[in-house]
Model the fold of this input.
Amino acid sequence: MRIQRPVLFATLLSAVPVAMSAVPGCGDDEARAGSDFLSSYAKALCDRTFACCDAATRAAHDLDASSADACASELEAILVAVSDGGEVKGTFVPEKAEACLAEVDAAPCAEIQIVSVLLGVNAKFTPSCPDAWDGSVPEGGTCGNNWDCARDRCLHTVDASGQSTSACRAKAVAGEPCSSRFDCDDGLRCDQPSAPDAGTCAPRLAMGESCKGSLDCQDELRCGEDGTCQAREQAGGACASDDDCAAGAACDGATCTPLGAAGAPCSADSDCASFACADATGTCADVCKGG
Done:
């Protein structure tokens, strides 16, 4: 079985719903600063992508813009369109915004992520970007985007009737309650000694510690058959699922098999280490690795 490699678009996704205006009463200067930042952010992402990724690699990832400027124009239009005319409920933080742009400019080429004109950078390399606005909406309050929220996460849900709602809900930190691993902040697990909805977020487990599943263990580890965290299998090792295999490999049958390098045959993006299978050639595209 092949599993999709996680695509870390946290930096982009925190910006996608951002509107072009500030909270009412903050004044024209702040509104203009927020608008200028959105434009600069789109330009920074496109400039870095075009500097890092050659035309063949961009095409394999379905980015068809003819130039960095054309890319920036398209990306900015998307960011504005998906905001649906909403307003950021918070205070623009110029120093964080400037730091965010500098972090994008300096991001390693291999950390550029492309889905057509939607661009992003591994969030580990752009820590200032989520703080470009200081959100004012508390937990449970209605929000339009991540930057509205005091703890930086706006969850959008759609019920069975198609009605859409949103609310600020931060991931829990260590010691806070949880019902699953996905309620907890990065690097944490949901420790559930009794009822499934009565857990507490706790650090993920180290080598040799008792576990119930691989999500209990630190990233480079898996939960072995003996119920303890163990090293993941390298390419060629035995496996029952992708969780058994180290980064860069997936479980193919019962053996950990390397994901395809540039030029390897592929039928889906998930076959490739770059997570990009070029339709025209049926081969894996390269990762971005320019200057």
